[in-house]
Amino acid sequence: xxxxxxxxxxxxxxxxxxAGADIVLLDNMTPELMREAxxxxxxxxxxxxxxxxxxxxxxxxITLTTIRAVAETGVERISTGALTHSVHAMDLSxxxxxxxxx
Length: 102
Known about the structure:
By secondary structure, the chain is an alpha/beta fold. It contains four helices and four strands; from the N terminus they run E-H-E-H-E-H-E-H. Strand 1 (about 5), helix 1 and strand 2 (about 25) form a beta-alpha-beta unit. The longest helix has 17 residues, at about 30-45.
């Protein structure tokens, strides 16, 4: 089982990592805060020999325009709703008429 925990403040990162989360979702953070989260995570991992690296996922407010800056922060995962939020549905319904011959 993979456990992912969402945080909205950097102060929550260390306790979540110590609690055993596999992935930490950084919700609505700026690239600067994400970069700091990566540094804090890396520092924690360096002090714990043999421990696994907790993956960080960026989410919230990420667009196709900002995704490069987010990727450059060092997070392992990026979630964006931009791919689905701006999609316009195409009506593919098929209308049929029932004809009964008597």
